[in-house]
Design brief:
With about 260 residues, the protein is mainly alpha-helical. It contains 11 helices and no strands. The protein has a single domain, classed as MetI-like (MetI-like fold, Orthogonal Bundle). The longest helix has about 40 residues. It is globular, with a radius of gyration of 22 Å.
Length: about 260
């Protein structure tokens, strides 16, 4: 407990030091069009939140992200289950990941535009690509690491097919599945913001990436930095709060934590 408190204190001190350097450099530079001060950025962030603009844009981004993330996760689990069930499935997963995993999702934007048009469907398409491959690889790796004793126990009590995967493979491999979910989330969040910077408007609204792009065109650089801070804050909350909560409720409770 004391080591955790010490780690938190050190991180907090480093954050304060970086914040101080930001403020000092912004004041020395004295050019709001290039690098606004931290105080100005926080003021823009406060105004954006109080006006509701940043919250609406963040909600738009998270809504699209959730759609792509859930579809990508479902497809990844399906591929990993097929790969764990048969050699043909394993070869299929290996071939697909070898072909598509190195392909940046943002490179699929031109095809997404042609196939689905300018809107959320194109964003969901590239998000599915971002999530699916790293999560499928991590999930399959976790399935393969399940010990033979546990596998035999599942088969001896009559578990087969889907029930065997759900009650034996998934709990035992959950640390790897969760690691893949974290990687998929990080890839998807970065991809979404980048995609919105290119074509983030749908039905008259847009996400955080489009907010940043709009404010850049208006030379409101303080709001640009405020948008970036919002992107970082959401990423930190998901990583440090949501995934941490899932980890405590699953791998730590089940005793499957690897370290």
């Amino acid at each position: 407990m004391s080591s955790a408190k010490g780690s938190f204190a050190r991180r907090f001190m480093l954050l304060c030091a970086l914040a101080g350097l930001w403020e000092i450099y912004g004041r020395i530079l004295n050019n709001d069009l290039l690098f606004p001060t931290l105080s100005q950025t926080l003021l823009s962030l406060y105004e954006g939140i109080m006006s509701g603009v940043l919250l609406v844009r963040a909600g738009n981004s998270l809504g699209v992200l959730l759609q792509g993330y859930l579809i990508g996760t479902a497809l990844a689990l399906l591929l990993a289950a097929l790969a764990a069930a048969s050699r043909l499935g394993a070869d299929l997963l290996d071939m697909l990941t070898s072909v598509f995993n190195p392909l940046p999702a943002i490179a699929l934007l031109p095809l997404a535009l042609m196939w689905f048009g300018l809107g959320n469907a194109s964003l969901v398409f590239v998000l599915v690509h971002s999530v699916m491959w790293p999560m499928a690889l991590n999930t399959f790796s976790g399935f393969r690491s399940v010990g033979s004793t546990l596998r035999m126990v599942g088969k001896n009590i009559g578990l087969r097919g889907v029930r065997y995967t759900i009650f034996i493979l998934v709990p035992a491999a959950f640390p790897s599945i969760l690691a893949g979910a974290k990687i998929g989330w990080a890839f998807a969040w970065r991809t979404l913001i980048a995609a919105e910077l290119v074509f983030g408007v749908s039905s008259g609204s847009g996400g955080l990436g489009w907010f940043i792009y709009e404010r850049k065109n208006q030379l409101d650089i303080g709001s640009v930095f405020a948008g970036l801070l919002m992107v970082i804050a959401i990423g930190l909350v998901v990583e440090a709060v949501i995934f941490r909560w899932i980890e405590r409720r699953t791998v730590q409770r089940w005793g499957t934590q690897t370290s």
